[in-house]
Design goal:
4 strands, about 100 residues, N-terminal domain of TfIIb, mainly beta, 1 helix
Length: about 100
Amino acid sequence: MTGSKRFISGAVCPSCQVVDRIVIEALQGGEGSDELDEQEIRRRCVVCGFTEQLDADAPAVSAPLPRARYDRSRRTTDQVEVVKILELGPPKGSS
């Protein structure tokens, strides 16, 4: 029986390479198991049906930000130009 489902933003399926179609499922008591205390965690692609068993005891690993994308988003594309301020004189043509 499925306990909870969460879609993972930005996740790519290792099988079909589709983005944002991976769901993490927490299943109570593994399939064919009589124990209700045991929790099974797996990831599943809703497009191709790919499933992978995740180790519930393993510490969660957070992926670092992709450096190229992060650096590119912080970089400014504006060119700095020096502006010269002129004093306002009498209008041309008026004498």
